Amino acid sequence: MKPRDSELMQAADREHRDLTVPAGDAQAKVDAIAELGELVRGHVELSADAVPDAKFAAMWKRIDEQTAAPVVESRGLLARVTAWFDRYRSHIITGAVSAGAVAAIAIMVRPSSPGDSSGGALGNSINAQPVQFRPAEVESLDTPGGTGTVFHLTDADGRSTTVIWVAPEDSVEGL
Amino acid sequence: MNRRTPLAATLVATALLAAPAFAGDAECSYLEIGASGGKTAIDAELKALEKKLTTPPLSAWTEFHKLSGGNASLDKLKAQTLKLAQGGASLLLRDRTDKRLELTVTMDDHSGKRVLDVKQALAVGNWAVWVASNAKAEGHILALTCK
């Protein structure tokens, strides 16, 4: 019985080992199918090998470019300074922003400047100011013809004020 | 404009803003007060000092009247004379920081005799009080606050 083409293909792939291929056209078909199969497998393997090689080649090329030492050029001072700013731009910006934030906080919490008098138009008006609880420090005290005494007065609100009291030496009770 | 110009401007502005705010001057307010042991009374203009005037030892007096007062703009190391109703006084700003002033203060009585010469440091916003009492148990008070 003459084998069918499907059986010849199985025989070429060695999937139909019991089939005896008669010589002649049937054997030629089997040989042709086997050869064609070898060609296809070889092409597929070569293609599979070629794709990773191309990817690795591109990757190594990029790594080489990035790790290569920079080309040293003879440049002017301004160009080198500019390059330095370019290289450390993020550091400089971070530092500048931080310094700006600190300066802004310092400006917000500092007391108003001496020129910002809130005394009003009248010459004898009194400036209302927040009082800090810190007594004055007396470095030297001279009271000619009298006796000086230094008090640290604490009022009902707990605010401390330095009072220097000069009493005449000839007073009977002084203070 | 070069793209680095804003960065340079930011750095310069930051340096300028971080500089001290004070150049050495101070704005002060003073009150000259007459104190005695009469009927209990404190002038309304002395309200800023009322709690101090009613605290010992100043509470030894019961009557306080404002004699004069005003503002004094102090320049560093330049003496400023205060014309008081009774006698006179002078203020000298020797140095200052943003929290503290170093002052030299003198007080003369009505006859021009020096009764007080003091060097002291004063915290910004605090009051300093100088009192000269006489044999009649009357008080001549000078109070000063600066910023």
Walk me through what this model shows:
The complex is a heterodimer of chains A (175) and B (147). In chain A, helix 1 (5-12) packs across helix 2 (25-67). A two-stranded antiparallel sheet of chain A has the order 2-3. By secondary structure, chain A is an alpha+beta fold. Chain A has three domains: 5-67; 77-109; 133-175, no CATH class. Chain A is rod-shaped and about 155 Å long. Chain A contains four helices and three strands, in the order ααααβββ. In chain B, the strands form two sheets. In chain B, strands 2-3-1-9-8 form a five-stranded mixed β-sheet, with no helix packed on it. In chain B, strands 4-5-6-7 form a four-stranded antiparallel β-sheet, with no helix packed on it. Chain B is built from two helices and nine strands. By secondary structure, chain B is mostly beta strands. Residues 18-24 of chain B have low confidence and may be disordered. Chain B has one domain (24-146). Chain B has helices at residues 5-17, 50-53; strands at residues 26-36, 41-42, 63-74, 80-83, 88-96, 100-108, 114-123, 127-133, 139-146. Chains A and B meet through helix 4, strand 1, strand 2 and strand 3 of A and helix 1, strand 1, strand 3, strand 7 and strand 8 of B.
